[in-house]
Amino acid sequence: MSSVPRMRIHHLSCGTLCPVGGRLMSERKSRPLRGALACHCLLIEAGQRLILVDTGLGLLDMGNRRMDRFFRFQCKPLVTPEQTAVRQVQRLGYSPRDVRHIVLTHLDFDHAGGLDDFPGAQVHLHVKEADAASARRGLIARGRYRPEQWSSHDRWRLYRDGGEPWFGFASVRNVGVPEVLLIPLVGHTWGHCGVAVARPGGGWLLHAGDAFFDRRELDSKNLRCKAGLRYYQLQMEVDRRLRLWNQRRLRDLVRLHGDEVRVICAHDPVQFEEWARRSPEQPLVAGPSGTATL
Q1: Rounded distance between C-alpha atoms, residue 144 and residue 186, angstroms
Q2: Rounded to whole angstroms, how far apart are CA atoms 53 and 249?
Q3: Class for domain 7-276, per CATH?
Q4: For 35, which of 26, 81, 157, 248 could close a Cys bridge (C-beta 3.0–4.6 Å)?
Q5: Helix (H, G, I), strand (E, B), or coil: what is residue 122?
Q6: CA dihedral over 167, 169, 170, 174, signed as positive or negative
Q7: By the 8 A CB rule, do 53 and 44 touch?
Q8: How far apart are CA 194 and CA 182, in angstroms?
């Protein structure tokens, strides 16, 4: 009998961002003049162990109390307790203690807000991201990184560049969890990474975090992006050359290896619906209708 644990990948949206700009930001609209973006996270069941890829916004982010004032106005997150990762984990019949590992694409407030909800988990992160979040140099950095979201955590495992190549991407590390890889994709932040997960049926799923915001940015034949999202990426980038270079590499990955690697981002609501088979506002529920996982 095989010793490989049963593995499933669930798609969670842990918070809804409602940015100023309406249809310029999203094909979904939450209210007049505001769009609606997902906070797309992954929950991996590997036997009795759970692994999260990003956490979205957490229970202590209710009411936006921990967010910078500017981002609170700009993004206007609509977060209910039912949308948090911890509540969706519990809805599957698990305890927060069952989440053993959290692999972060980066430490922005909308990706790391749920860390407090899983104090026993090992957190995996690129060392350059930890350094940037600690330094918080500049106005944008002070807004995007909210130390109160991770101040209770003391189980960190930091990774430096180096490792085996993966589909032409260098500097890859296995994070100590079977078939989960950290792929540096610098540009949005200094330590930004994608997280590659081996799919149970074969091939890979690459969660590219905020390396792109609109699924059409990976279409080599008809490259497009919502105007508001293009502006937001410019506003938040730390290195434009590296960000655009990594987007080109992701387009090449899809073009050359799209049959082996599927690529997703964190905030495209249409892409989330395609994978999760439900709207971003609808939490995961146990049972066949709520566990369409690929």
Answers
A1: 16
A2: 22
A3: alpha beta
A4: 26
A5: strand
A6: negative
A7: yes
A8: 6
